[in-house]
Write a structure and sequence with these properties.
By secondary structure, the chain is mainly α. The protein contains 7 helices and no strands. The protein starts with a helix and ends with a helix.
Length: about 140
């Protein structure tokens, strides 16, 4: 597989669109968020979409540029850091996204609305920095 810059840029753009939509719910207080099933579902779906874009970007870069494939979502993020695509600091902040994504997708036990709320706000901070570092790295290849 060959790294296709436009494919990565397209996914980064989609991630940005998802984050813009999610940011509409940024100012909702935690209690309101926890009480509104509709709002939680919207945010959960947005987080799933954002995580999917992030892992798709990671897998495309790893396969297309480095010729390697990861077995888990977490391994994809770790390898991006090991290869210098992501900073170690950002990796430490985004680490755990694979497990959280699986909780959202598979609904393990009951999803804790507070955990969703906390990860939502963390994502609004961390995901744009992920996109920035990806685009910065793309400019070097």
């Amino acid at each position: 597989m060959i790294l296709r810059r436009e494919a990565v840029e397209e996914r980064v753009k989609k991630l940005d669109e998802i984050l813009q939509e999610l940011s509409k719910y940024r100012d909702a207080p935690c209690k309101e968020f926890q009480a509104s099933l509709s709002q939680r579902w919207i945010v959960e779906r947005g987080l799933i979409a954002a995580a999917s874009m992030i892992f798709d970007i990671a897998d495309h870069i790893l396969a297309g540029h480095f010729g390697c494939y990861s077995e888990t979502y977490e391994e994809s993020l770790q390898r991006l850091a090991e290869k210098g695509v992501l900073s170690e600091k950002l990796y430490e902040q985004i680490k755990g996204l694979g497990g959280f994504r699986n909780i959202l997708i598979h609904g393990y036990v009951d999803i804790d609305p507070r955990e969703v709320f906390d990860n939502f706000h963390k994502g609004l901070d961390v995901f744009p920095r992920f996109a920035h570092q990806i685009l910065k790295w793309l400019d070097t290849v």
